[in-house]
Amino acid sequence: MASIHTTTPSLEAASSVATRRRITPTAPTSRSLSLPFTFKSQFNAFVVGGTPLLGCFNHQSFVPRAVATPNSVLSEQAFEGLSLHQDDDVYDSEAEAESSSMNGDELDLSKLSLPQRLVDTLLKRGITHLFPIQRAVLVPALEGRDIIARAKTGTGKTLAFGIPIIKRLTEDDTERTRRMSGRLPRVLVLAPTRELAKQVEKEIKESASYLNTVCVYGGVSYTIQRSALSRGVDVVVGTPGRIIDLIESNDLKLGEVEYLVLDEADQMLAVGFEEDVEEILENLPSKRQSMLFSATMPSWVKKLARKYLDNPLNIDLVGDQDEKLAEGIKLYAISATATSKRTILSDLITVYAKGGKTIVFTQTKRDADEVSIALTSSIASEALHGDISQHQRERTLNGFRQGKFTVLVATDVAARGLDIPNVDLIIHHELPNDAETFVHRSGRTGRAGKEGSAILMYTNSQRRTVKSLERDVGCRFEFISPPSMEEVLESSAEQIIATLNGVHPESIKFFTPTA
């Protein structure tokens, strides 16, 4: 479908539109019962003479759906003539799909009409330009649109909703933004896991320390969270279960919420939060702006959007291509028996992580413990799974972030929402259950435009499954052999040299006489 280009409204204009617009969810109509459609194209990488020929599309099935991309605007006329096939799980909204059409300068934070203290904070964090999802969301969010956004893992989703919300809170009534004790939250962010909730809280606090942001989740005492809420709060981030508890105890009042964010909505379903989420949404004011972010769109998420979002704009930076891995992730596959896996695992980490952070994914808690113990004799590692207490869990994650050990062995509980920057290598110790799990595991590396590697370990009997995974994900593995002794020694030597180069010269002088 050809893009229809138009002039993008300024951020000032977007803000003024939002100020005038009343955002009141209405009963679904024939035009708002569902989401726009997107053309589905299956991407294949064909290999000829060992060279992959990218950019070959197999249009086996077209599912018409409009896509709002960062550089196109699709009006209602763009839907005319499309043959729409509907069922209970398909959205067919003809709502106008629009998005920003920005040039390179407009992606520069210093060129945008954002509050200067927000810009200064982001620049200090090394954030100078918007990522595609942030670019696509910014203007419609400032216009007050309800939004449904799909984007690849690790592409900056938190700031996609964080920047426009922080801008609005910063520029709003000064009476409100003063530190009024007991003020009620204006922003509610729902996250499926405590790790993701804490990550969102951290992003908002680091971007706008002048806003009072409180994170609430289960597994810890209520006392501190209740005290924080009673002092007055601007933003509440939390898991649905704990939020329900605080609502029922009258410690959290949602009567002044103006902005709702559902982050990783599909995972709310996966962890059984459907009823809690719906109960929370029923407690919110009808006059609000809602933004829903989800990697996939299962039936429950679609129904949620139909019921609680008002004519949402569908921003899809994934499309219906199965391939959802972030760019920059190198994929490897290696055949190994159950016995040899333990033997070659440490060598793979030594050669491919090169001293950086590694996450090894296992299928069971027992495997996580056993693999971690086996690795500890040669590489510092810790296990992370559901049987570990909240205190130990946070201690383990903090130790991994700080580099106290370089290998985290985890079950899929760690596949989503963990705030662990700069992971260099992912190892799938066993085949994941499905393509989606593979993508989410692998997405722990190669985040925010950085490079990373993922290694899939499989047995000979699973080779056909690996090929199926390639088709389902739309990727190619480089099939490798166990590292040779020379490769292991060379990589180890490089890491030792790098470590020595990092030693302060004054410390070297201390050891020189006895060296």
TrEMBL record:
Annotated Helicase C-terminal domain residues: 344-489
Boundaries of every Helicase ATP-binding domain copy: 138-315
Biased composition (Polar residues): 1-10
GO molecular function terms noted in the UniProt entry: ATP binding; hydrolase activity; RNA binding; RNA helicase activity
Gene3D superfamilies listed in its UniProt record: P-loop containing nucleotide triphosphate hydrolases (3.40.50.300)
Record EC number: 3.6.4.13
Superkingdom classification of source: Eukaryota
Protein name: RNA helicase
Organism the protein comes from: Hibiscus syriacus (Rose of Sharon)
